[in-house]
Design brief:
TIM Barrel; eight-stranded parallel sheet; alpha/beta; seven-stranded antiparallel sheet; about 500 residues; Immunoglobulin-like; 2 domains; 22 strands
Length: about 500
């Protein structure tokens, strides 16, 4: 009997640690890369997040087939999506001209975090709605299995009374005797009893999602919309940017900024009691501005409809600069494609096109976007965006920074460019609107491999070997083009 016990003990030791493979170590949550905080590390790999995703309703709209949607993103090679989960919807009416809007579900299919009485239709802000959390877990878990990062946007501005009077937080829509406040005060500390409800909601979401590694939290979508401060006015191309608001660079005012800081502190405080820590994002402005006095709790600074300078001017923060929404431009692949390329090659690490080809019934992104919808997307554009993703993954981009000194136009005309480099080692160059142009780069002495990439088709020409004998080298590339991308990598002797 003693021998049997000994054998059992030996077998147990073997099974636990000697004879069986150890359980796989769970990758750390999405984080800033330790060698260059302008980029992410995810699943132990340097990462740039790129997507063309649906209009944020994939969790709150239970009529949306999120399984098909996430499969489509994964199959097309994208690694990122953005969702709204809180007290906001675009139910009823024509919100922003979006005719097939996932944020406009049938009211019976709208899921919120709070229980709703089936008779009175009133929400109880003290009771959680388990079907919502079940769907949230399903979505995040499935995304994690497909290596897709989810931007969880906790709050958004209310743009008009139309959205506000449908919110569970509107005083007539709940049974909790909540104060009646103007929607512009909702995302401020001057919101009466709402702060207590907001705090409980944030802490609940943070606890629920703590086990997942594929998320980050965004405090509020477009905080400059309900509490704006005009930073500056800009000149824009009226053909590309036809709306009056597209000439305004607005940021959040002091009341909004204080409230956002307090929300970030709630996230940090709640996670201090939990196993995992997740990145926090703050939505800064439209187009771009130099970020001053950044919130130390924030690791991702997002812009909408961003110009390249939004990234290049803020890389000194050693934090991720993102373009997490774009649209409201004419339906033209080039306009969106060039925006994405220039932003990423200016130091950005996150890009999201608001893709209106994803709708209820077309969760595979095959809906034909109508002429009035204020944005673009579709299969053709997503293939072009995938070319940008593949191009960047061909570099050791962790070692690269935006470069405004190693480029020269020697002749002809050029509409625009962006250059990301590790000087004398690797260069990623994007050019558009070239007419009889001659381009030179400043490179150290040695041999380089040059590849020319067509951003539309992904077709590559090269590699060819290019010799640098001096500081500036003329690139053997076409002189006329709509847009092209250039890869130059040093060849070790």
């Amino acid at each position: 009997m003693k021998n049997i016990v000994n054998y059992l003990f030996i077998f147990l030791l073997w099974a636990i640690g000697w004879g069986c493979s150890p359980l796989p170590k769970q990758a750390a949550p999405l984080a800033l890369h330790p060698s260059n905080g302008n980029y992410f590390i995810f699943n132990d790999k340097p990462t740039i997040l790129v997507t063309s995703g649906e209009h944020y309703g994939s969790v709150m709209n239970s009529g949306f087939d999120h399984e098909k949607y996430l499969k489509t993103l994964a199959d097309e090679g994208f690694n990122y999506t953005r969702i709204f989960i809180g007290p906001y919807s675009e139910i009823g009416g024509n919100n922003f001209g979006i005719t097939s809007n996932t944020m406009n579900p049938d009211p019976n299919l709208w899921l919120t975090p709070w229980k709703q009485d089936s008779v009175s239709a009133l929400f109880d802000l003290t009771q959680w709605n388990q079907p919502f959390f079940d769907r949230l877990h399903q979505f995040i878990g499935l995304a994690e299995s497909k290596n897709i990062v989810v931007e969880v946007t906790l709050f958004t501005s209310f743009y008009t009374d139309h959205q506000w009077i449908r919110s569970p937080f509107y005083f007539k829509n709940n049974s909790n005797g909540i104060d009646s406040v103007h929607f512009r005060k909702f995302n401020t500390m001057d919101n009466g009893q709402l702060w207590e409800v907001q705090e409980k909601y944030v802490r609940k979401i943070v606890r629920e999602l703590n086990p997942y590694g594929n998320i980050f939290f965004e405090i509020q979508n477009e905080p400059w919309s309900d509490n704006p401060h005009l930073a500056k006015t800009i000149m824009t191309d009226t053909l590309t940017h036809p709306y009056a608001w597209q000439k305004l660079v607005e940021e959040a005012n002091e009341a909004s900024t204080l409230w956002q800081r307090n929300i970030a502190e709630l996230i940090v405080d709640e996670e201090s009691k939990l196993p995992n820590r997740h990145l926090i994002a703050q939505n800064i402005s439209n187009y771009g501005m130099v970020i001053e006095n950044p919130n130390p709790a924030v690791s991702i600074f997002n812009f909408h409809y961003a110009y390249p300078d939004a990234a290049s001017e803020n890389v000194v923060l050693n934090k991720v600069i993102g373009l997490d929404e774009t649209g409201f431009m004419p339906h033209n692949d080039f306009i969106y494609r060039s925006e994405a390329w220039k932003f990423i090659l200016s130091g950005g690490a996150l890009y999201n096109n608001l893709d209106y080809s994803f709708t209820v019934g077309n969760e595979d992104g095959t809906y034909l976007i109508d002429n009035v919808t204020p944005g673009w997307g579709g299969i053709s554009y997503r293939k072009q965006l995938a070319t940008l993703r593949d191009f960047m993954n061909g570099f050791d981009f962790i070692s690269m920074k935006p470069d405004k000194v190693s480029f020269a136009l020697n002749g002809g005309t050029l509409a625009g460019h962006a250059l990301l480099s590790e000087p004398d080692k690797q260069y990623a160059l994007y050019l558009h609107g070239g007419k009889n142009c001659q381009i030179s780069l400043r490179m150290g002495k040695g041999n380089y491999s040059l590849v020319v990439v067509n951003p539309v088709t992904g077709e590559k020409k090269g590699p060819i070997e290019l010799r640098s004998e001096s500081d500036w080298v003329k690139l053997p590339i076409p002189s006329d083009f709509e847009d092209i991308a250039i890869s130059l990598v040093y060849l070790k002797p």
